[in-house]
Amino acid sequence: MNFQKLTLLLLIFFIEKINSNAEENFDVRQHLSTVTRYHVAKEISEDSFVPSNINDQCTPIHLNLVARHGTRAPTKKKLKELEALSTRLQFILQSVEEQKKSLHDIPAWLWGWKSPWKGKHKGGELISEGEAELYQLGIRIREKFPELFKEEYHPDVYPIKATQVSRASASAVAFGMGLFSGRGNLGSGRHRAFAVTSESRASDTMLRFHDCCQNYKTFRKSREPFVDKLKEPVLDEITQVLVKRLGLNFTRQDISSLWFLCKQEASLLNTTDQACALFSPYEVSLLEWADDLELFILKGYGNSLNYRMGVPLLEDVIQSMEEAIKAREEGLVPGSYEMARLRFAHAETLLPFSCLIGLFLDGSELELILREQPLQLPPKPPQKRIWRGSTVAPFAGNNMLVLYTCPANNSSKYFVQVLHNEHPTPMPGCENSDFCPFEVFKERVAAPHLKHDYKALCSMESEQTEQTASRFLLAGYSLGNVTSYTTVVGAICSFLLAYLFVSLYIKF
Ligand SMILES: *[C@@H]1O[C@H](CO)[C@@H](O)[C@H](O)[C@H]1NC(C)=O
Ligand SMILES: *[C@@H]1O[C@H](CO)[C@@H](O)[C@H](O)[C@H]1NC(C)=O
Ligand SMILES: *[C@@H]1O[C@H](CO)[C@@H](O)[C@H](O)[C@H]1NC(C)=O
Ligand SMILES: *[C@@H]1O[C@H](CO)[C@@H](O)[C@H](O)[C@H]1NC(C)=O
């Protein structure tokens, strides 16, 4: 027996095995960044965080909800992009046909492909899958916190606020239908009417601060070219690979549109064997990372203005808790004061709010933020990162801050529990606890941000924005080539295993 040959065979066998195992467990639906569906996002759990054991003498007395709208149709601009993709694909296929090249590598669905939304001219609305996400969330919240939702409905006891964008207000309605189902006299579902209020889009500093903040808009415009540059190497690399693999003359723009199509198909149509099947799991993870980088830079920790402009929302949350505490201390009867403040908005609302309460950070990153220093960008796969669009802001993604009162001890009587997508979530600002004494929450988590003023942040010709932006650039990033770290590690492991087997083989 030729041992070298055997080693090689075993090596190949193990590499194949390791790779195929990784690919079998890979579900593209969990890697769609902010296009990920809620029920999928809710099941993604990578950390081993153990939630606090809450004393059963503690009772919830108030709840703040900040939720993103549910699953929506592609926006008008994106509908046009898909129509353009259809034309492009036909052109590309035609040219290979004319050149009489081999066609067997080309997936059948590409021939004559038309956008599933062809002929649809309006976009961006909440679709029925999105309604269901919010409706079910409403039902689950009522079941989880019966003490909070047993009072009779009154708009001041359960205020529901949405932005003046239809997918957000429709999300609020779907949620309310779930929350109050069986409580009214309308139809067989015994529904009841409830109010959803909105500020005007132009002055909604609580839920659409990104739209009212001039400095943010300027920052965002100035950063977009940088973000595109950052994504280019990923798109170019994948373009080259696909051009080779399929023999089709794709451009960077085509690949970008095909990735968009993959996300829409997988999320809205539950189809993963067409556009998504063009990409390997590793390629998907790179495209997902590129999306997440954009999210980080333009809507997340990438620039302090991104979240600081959310101070009016944070102030509103703290104020609602203080009012609930006051009502309780004054001994008001339940039902005569607010029990929950329910808000329905956008990723541009939810992400800054998460950043303001310091979610998805490790301890050293929190230090940097408090010292006003920029964070590193989320690391490239296969390195792990906490910042993933599919968990931080999926469709219907949400944060709940539940205020509890606990039997008086000398320390603290009121506590804040943080739930992200309904899971208890640690706050680095509160010693990594998900159950934080209210005073600590106020002083250590919120206060460092609340010293900033919305007007000053947004309307000043502030130097601060410029400085942060340029510092961030200096902290720049090198995007290496697309070599798979797992494959290398896999190969080393396989080699060791193969060696072991060969040694055994020689022995017996
Ligand atoms: C691909 O496109 C480039 C320019 O866009 C062109 O020069 C080249 O000939 C095309 N190749 C094929 C195989 O169609
Ligand atoms: C989506 O497709 C998967 C199989 O790929 C199936 O198990 C699942 O039930 C489908 N979900 C829906 C909502 O149709
Ligand atoms: C109150 O203090 C007692 C004794 O120090 C402790 O056992 C109990 O867990 C505390 N309760 C709360 C709600 O912290
Ligand atoms: C609570 O405070 C009282 C006096 O204010 C003190 O006698 C008692 O020991 C304290 N209890 C705890 C658990 O700290």
UniProtKB/TrEMBL annotation:
<dbReference type="InterPro" id="IPR000560">
    <property type="entry name" value="His_Pase_clade-2"/>
</dbReference>
<feature type="transmembrane region" description="Helical">
    <location>
        <begin position="485"/>
        <end position="506"/>
    </location>
</feature>
<keyword id="KW-0325">Glycoprotein</keyword>
<feature type="disulfide bond">
    <location>
        <begin position="430"/>
        <end position="436"/>
    </location>
</feature>
<feature type="disulfide bond">
    <location>
        <begin position="262"/>
        <end position="276"/>
    </location>
</feature>
<protein>
    <recommendedName>
        <fullName>Multiple inositol polyphosphate phosphatase 1</fullName>
        <ecNumber>3.1.3.62</ecNumber>
        <ecNumber>3.1.3.80</ecNumber>
    </recommendedName>
</protein>
<feature type="signal peptide">
    <location>
        <begin position="1"/>
        <end position="22"/>
    </location>
</feature>
<comment type="similarity">
    <text>Belongs to the histidine acid phosphatase family. MINPP1 subfamily.</text>
</comment>
<keyword id="KW-0732">Signal</keyword>
<keyword id="KW-1133">Transmembrane helix</keyword>
<dbReference type="InterPro" id="IPR029033">
    <property type="entry name" value="His_PPase_superfam"/>
</dbReference>
<keyword id="KW-0378">Hydrolase</keyword>
<feature type="disulfide bond">
    <location>
        <begin position="58"/>
        <end position="406"/>
    </location>
</feature>
<keyword id="KW-1003">Cell membrane</keyword>
<dbReference type="Pfam" id="PF00328">
    <property type="entry name" value="His_Phos_2"/>
</dbReference>
<keyword id="KW-0812">Transmembrane</keyword>
<dbReference type="GO" id="GO:0005886">
    <property type="term" value="C:plasma membrane"/>
</dbReference>
<dbReference type="InterPro" id="IPR016274">
    <property type="entry name" value="Histidine_acid_Pase_euk"/>
</dbReference>
<dbReference type="GO" id="GO:0034417">
    <property type="term" value="F:bisphosphoglycerate 3-phosphatase activity"/>
</dbReference>
<keyword id="KW-1015">Disulfide bond</keyword>
<keyword id="KW-0472">Membrane</keyword>
